[in-house]
Amino acid sequence: MNERILLTGSSGFLGHYLIKHLAGRAELHCIYKRNKPQHEKGFTHFCDITNWDDLSNLIDTISPSILIHTASLSDVERCELEKDLAYRINVLSTEYLSEIAGKRGIRFIYISTDNVFDGKRGWYREEDHPDPINYYGETKLMGEEKVRSFCRRWLILRLSHLYGKGFGLKKIFFEEIMERGRRGEPVSIFREFRTFLWVEDCAAMISELVFKRDAEGILHLAGKERMSRYEFARRVFSHFGFDESLLSEADINESSAFVRRPIDVSLVGEKGWMLSGIEPHGLEESLSIIGKDL
Fold first, then answer.
1. CA–CA gap between residue 196 and residue 192 (Å, rounded)
2. Structure confidence by residue, pLDDT tens digits, 117-163
3. To the nearest whole number, what is the mean pLDDT of the chain?
4. Mean of pLDDT values over 265-293
5. Residues 176-235: pLDDT tens digits?
6. Which of 6, 171, 253, 271 to pair with 155, CA 20 to 30 A apart?
7. What is the DSSP code string of the chain?
8. Residues of the chain above pLDDT 90, percent
9. Is the pLDDT of residue 89 over 90?
């Protein structure tokens, strides 16, 4: 275990799975602020990532060779309502970490989003020009720019919408529709197209890319299939035997009165699959595996 890894957002949805995939392969240090991650391998550290002094002191103590920055405020509506908070978490913390990583020669892996695109056409490639239409996407793009400005060795990973069994306090879309299906409650879902990616596949891809020193630049991590949220929910309901008549599709403009959402931010993910050596599971196959653990 030659690498010493510092992971932010360790108690989040993706963070939980990254710990699972990275523990035992490197000396793993996990930052948390509110919810201490529960795992037996690795080290946990309380830290406010928006505090420059706290971050600098912690990184000096740990002296990591790789920093994986997954922590962010990803609630699109909350980012629009609390722009100062979104800026502090998504931009300033990234700037602090990038500057420290750049000065110390730490390899920086930044987790970004498909929401950096405007959603007008879909199937975006790494070389396509980003143009976010909501504040969440803006802050994540600003974070990308900080990484590129300050870091010497960096990898930006733009992720499609992740699904799977959650372990955090906040329920993800997949968990919400599963709960509604079990309770027999109606679900209205807006029409937004993504290339949904199973979180296990995502964490496996990232854990491989972490140890590939030549993996640099921007990569898209995405599933194989482009589908709307409604189609995704319909296939989940069908797989688990829930009543599909409970599902209805709403126009994306009805999803919120104060935040714009891109219609189609599907990503082309072949480069990420090839470089990581991990090809994502299809939806039906992943649902079958998830079902064994529910």
1. 11
2. 999 999 999 999 999 999 999 999 999 999 999 999 999 999 999 99
3. 93
4. 95
5. 999 999 999 999 998 899 999 999 999 999 999 999 988 999 999 999 999 999 999 999
6. 171
7. ---EEEEESTTSHHHHHHHHHHBTTBEEEEEESSS----SSSEEEE--TT-HHHHHHHHHHH--SEEEE------HHHHHH-HHHHHIIIIIHHHHHHHHHHHHT-EEEEEEEGGGS--SS--B-TTSPP--SSHHHHHHHHHHHHHHHH-SSEEEEEE--EES---SSSPPHHHHHHHHHHHT--EEEE--EE--EEHHHHHHHHHHHHT-TT--EEEEE--S--EEHHHHHHHHHHHHT--GGGEEEE-GGGS-SS----SB--B--HHHHHHHT-PPPPHHHHHHHHHTT-
8. 83
9. yes
Residue 100, both tokens: 């420290």
Give whole-number Cα distances, 88 to 51, 77, 161, 169, in Å. 10, 16, 23, 21
How far apart (Å, rounded) are the C-alpha atoms in residues 67 and 70? Answer: 10
Q: Which of these, 173, 165, 232, 229, lies nearest to 199 by C-alpha position? A: 165
Q: How many residues does the chain have?
A: 294
pLDDT band, very low/low/confident/very high, at 170 (cuts 50, 70, 90): confident
Q: Name residue 9's amino acid.
A: G
Joined together, the tokens standing for residue 172 give: 């993800």
Residue 88 token pair: 């502090």
pLDDT at residue 169 in the model: 63
Residue type at position 234: R
As given in the structure block, the two tokens for residue 261 are: 């959402």
Q: Measuring CA to CA, how many Å separate 51 from each of 3, 15, 86?
A: 25, 20, 14
Measured torsion, CA atoms of residues 33, 66, 96, 221, in degrees rounded to the nearest 10 = -80
